[in-house]
Automatic annotation (TrEMBL), chain A:
Protein family (similarity comment): Belongs to the aldehyde dehydrogenase family.
UniProt-listed SUPFAM superfamilies: ALDH-like
Keyword Oxidoreductase recorded: yes
Organism domain of life: Bacteria
UniProt source species: Asanoa iriomotensis
Alphabetical keyword list: Oxidoreductase
Protein name as catalogued: Aldehyde dehydrogenase
Stored InterPro entries: Ald_DH/histidinol_DH, Ald_DH_C, Ald_DH_CS_GLU, Ald_DH_N, Aldehyde_DH_dom
Active site, UniProt feature: E256
Gene3D superfamilies on file: Aldehyde Dehydrogenase, Chain A, domain 1, Aldehyde Dehydrogenase, Chain A, domain 2
UniProtKB/TrEMBL annotation, chain B:
Cross-referenced Gene3D superfamilies: Aldolase class I
Keywords attached to this entry: Lyase, Schiff base
PANTHER family per record: DEOXYRIBOSE-PHOSPHATE ALDOLASE (PTHR10889)
CDD domains referenced in this protein's UniProt entry, alphabetically: DeoC (cd00959)
This protein's name: Deoxyribose-phosphate aldolase
One matching Pfam family: DeoC
Matching InterPro entries: Aldolase_TIM, DeoC, DeoC/FbaB/LacD_aldolase
EC code: 4.1.2.4
Enzyme class: lyase
Catalytic activity: 2-deoxy-D-ribose 5-phosphate = D-glyceraldehyde 3-phosphate + acetaldehyde
Species of provenance: Asanoa iriomotensis
Family in the record: Belongs to the DeoC/FbaB aldolase family. DeoC type 2 subfamily.
Length: 476, 277
């Protein structure tokens, strides 16, 4: 037996302060009412740090700082100078990449292999990409001199903490806006380290403000009169509440919400490659991915070999310590999320789908869920309709391409989809008909800053990434 | 997944010893002499003269003319003598010549034959011809093990590699091997992955297990360990054995020995501390 010895990444590269204030106007400050909450390592439940909780007065202060920085500095600065700051931030992110990756894995529970090889490189790439746009806005297709919007309120989720920050902050700053960003309450640490990076880059005070807290802080931020633009990534439920709250106001909104993506496997697909794609689609980041390929649609003629291959592959997945470089699946981000995954999985069993997980030993402390598939799932099952946001795959079958399209589109969501086939013409035929913001062909969960990302239907509106991502932050 | 595992400490030590036991120590030069082959055989028996715990390699791989020398030098060691055959490396000779080449090597004492497939026939779509040639060589081998060299660098696509793998297995090959080492592109991880998937699927379907041998271009311990991880996670445990997985290599061995010594002593010794044969 080839037993891999533990290969842990060192925690020593990162210093976590025992407590953090709010980052307002270029400095860390205490919250007005002194409230705080704890952030923990979901793999061990160890407390990592004590984080300030922003109340309405703090949000007010942050928005005022952002407004002042917008009026006096950032909106007046030539694009080429804004670009210099963004390039500088991108370079510091690369230089401090190891530190950021370890911190992300500690606070979020995702495997270090992923934070090191996917999250942090993409974060730097995003800043580099939008730095390039900052002095070329006149050529982005939005008129000769597009203007920024003002102060952007940005609320981001816990699944890709720093990457979602980059998706929000990089285009906003490139376009000339200033921001107040609220990271998720379970994963604030990399955003706070990013605040230090803004200081290190000498970013003018007030251009980036970070207010930590939970739902109430987020509500105070999006409902604040002083913000011109709201960008939210998170659950469809909260997204709808935000849309209602700002209806009739001058605020522009972009929402990136849930998903229940179909990953469609045709009979001519190379099965081993498709299985890699299925695994990457649903088990990447513990399935905490809004565009996860959580509904597997397999053509009936290859159902047996695909399933056999998938199960064999799943038995090889290594679940455990996120800081071990050989870990494939880390910890579930929070007790609440674990509870939700368990509840929906139990419903799957009760509704008659067949549940399977490979034998796998889970650690005693922390929040863990074994990779799981449900077979015999139909469109009527809740596990085929509702977003589970965990390492749980529902397997359905289809007979013809038309049926695949019909089933793939038969969902309230429309964020992403995957198609696996050897036939180029079929890929184009499918991409034409799938109602999803992103269609991946013979790959899955592939991201690039130059490629726009966003949803149809209840997956939200607006696009992030690429030239399209600028539109959300310009007065067009 | 390719090459992203981090193999450390005890796992690394285990992998290095296994890799040494899987090496087909190879010399395939026009300049080969009995003296050169005898030196290599001595190395095969005791790769690290300073450390008796170091295991011997799996086999010596030579041209047919050198087989008698190798057989004599390896007598009683349990180390196999592999001979290339069938007009290696190009395979561009009439079938009778290839069969005679094979039979001569077996008669001289080789217990493993590394043949090359007919790439000319393969690339022009004459798959049956490729199949029948392999089957004929297999017959000429008698009890000797047959390794079928696909020369993946010339097949160019993964589809071709997979198809050639199946032809080699169906025609009776005991091993499928990537390369001769005589063309610019030799063994790569992705090609070996495709071949490992092929032998795994072939056993699922027929019950017969076929071995895999990447050859050419594998020079460092780090590379070798990546291959072993690939074997482990693709074909599985059953292939992690010198009977089912080999490395065709020459310079790899000294790097394995150097890393082995580093793990036991904690310091790197220079190349002068390992024999050049």
């Amino acid at each position: 037996m080839f037993e891999y010895a533990p290969a842990p990444e060192s925690r020593a590269v990162v210093d976590i302060n025992p407590s953090y204030g709010l980052f307002i106007d270029g400095a860390f400050v205490d919250p007005a009412d002194g409230a705080s909450f704890k952030t923990i390592n979901p793999a061990s439940e160890e407390v990592l740090s004590e984080i300030a909780e922003a109340g309405p007065a703090d949000v007010d202060r942050a928005v005022a700082a952002a407004r002042a920085a917008y009026d006096k500095v950032w909106s007046r600065m030539p694009g080429r100078d804004r670009a210099k700051y963004l390039y500088r931030i991108a370079r510091i992110i690369q230089e401090r990449g190891r530190e950021l990756a370890v911190l992300e894995s500690l606070d979020n529970g995702k495997p270090i292999r992923e934070s090191r090889d996917v999250d942090i490189p993409l974060v730097a790439a995003h800043f580099f990409y939008y730095a390039g746009w900052a002095d070329k806005l006149a050529h982005a297709g939005f008129g000769p001199a597009p203007k920024p919007l003002g102060v952007a309120a940005q609320v981001i989720p816990w699944n890709f903490p720093l990457l979602m920050l980059a998706w929000k902050i990089a285009p906003a700053l490139a376009a000339g806006n200033t921001v107040v960003l609220k990271p998720a309450e379970t994963t604030p640490l990399t955003a706070l380290l990013f605040a230090e990076i803004c200081q290190q880059a000498d970013l003018p005070p007030g251009v980036v403000n970070i207010v930590t807290g939970a739902g109430e802080t987020g509500r105070a931020l999006v409902e604040h009169d002083g913000v011109d633009k709201i960008a939210f990534t998170g659950s469809t439920e909260v997204g709808k509440a935000i849309a209602r709250a700002v209806a009739g106001s001058r605020k522009k909104v972009t929402l990136e919400l849930g998903g229940k993506a179909a990953n469609v496997i045709f009979e001519d697909a190379p099965i081993d490659q498709a299985v890699e794609g299925i695994v990457n689609g649903i088990f990447f980041n513990q399935g905490h991915v809004c565009c996860a390929g959580s509904r597997l649609l397999v053509q009936e003629s290859v159902y047996e070999p695909v399933l056999a291959s998938l199960k064999r592959r799943m038995a090889r997945l290594r679940v455990g310590d996120p800081l071990d470089k050989n870990t494939d699946i880390g910890a579930i981000n929070s007790a609440a999320q674990l509870e939700r995954i368990r509840a929906l999985s139990d419903i799957g069993g009760e509704e008659g789908a067949e549940r399977w997980s490979p034998p796998c030993e889970l650690p005693d402390n922390g929040f863990w869920f074994a990779p799981t598939i449900f077979t015999g799932v139909t469109q009527a099952h809740r596990i085929a309709r509702e977003e589970i946001f965990g390492p749980v795959l529902s397997v359905l079958t289809f007979r013809t391409p038309a049926e695949a399209v019909e089933k793939a589109n038969n969902t309230p969501y429309g964020l992403s989809a995957g198609v696996w086939t050897d036939k180029g013409s079929r890929i184009l035929w499918m991409a034409d008909r799938l109602r999803a913001g992103v269609v991946w062909a013979n790959t899955f969960n592939k991201f690039d800053p130059s490629s726009p990302f966003g949803g149809y239907k209840e997956s939200g509106y607006g696009r992030e990434g690429g030239r399209h991502g600028l539109e959300a932050y310009l007065d067009v | 997944m390719l090459g992203t595992r981090s193999i450390k400490t005890t796992a690394k030590a285990w992998a290095i010893d296994l890799a040494i036991r899987m090496v087909d120590l190879t010399t395939l030069e026009g300049a080969d002499t009995p003296g050169k082959v005898r030196a290599l055989c001595a190395k095969a028996r005791r790769p690290d003269p300073a450390d008796p715990t170091c295991p011997p390699v799996a086999a010596i791989c030579v041209y047919p003319a050198m087989v008698p020398v190798a057989v004599e030098a390896l007598a009683g060691s349990g180390i196999h003598t592999a001979s290339v055959a069938t007009a290696f490396p190009s395979g561009q000779a009439p079938l009778e010549v290839k069969l005679a080449d094979t039979k001569a090597a077996v008669a001289a004492g080789a217990d493993e034959i590394d043949m090359v497939i007919n790439r000319g026939a393969f690339l022009s779509g004459r798959y049956l011809e490729v199949f029948e040639e392999i089957a004929a060589v297999k017959q000429a081998c008698g009890t000797a093990h047959l390794k079928v060299i696909l020369e993946t660098g010339e097949l160019a696509t993964y589809d071709n590699v997979r198809r050639a793998s199946w032809i080699g297995m169906l025609a009776g090959g005991d091993f499928i091997k990537t390369s001769t080492g005589k063309v610019p592109v030799a063994a790569t991880l992705p090609v070996t992955l495709v071949m490992l998937e092929a032998v795994r699927d072939f056993r699922d379907l027929t019950g017969r297990q076929v071995g895999v041998k990447p050859a050419g271009g594998i020079r460092t311990t780090k590379d070798a360990v990546k291959y072993l991880v690939l074997v482990n996670e693709t074909a599985g445990d059953d292939w992690l054995d010198p009977d089912w997985f080999r490395f065709g290599a020459s310079t790899l061995l000294n790097d394995l020995l150097m890393q082995r010594t580093k793990l036991t002593t904690g310091v790197y010794s220079g190349p002068d501390y390992f024999t050049l044969d």
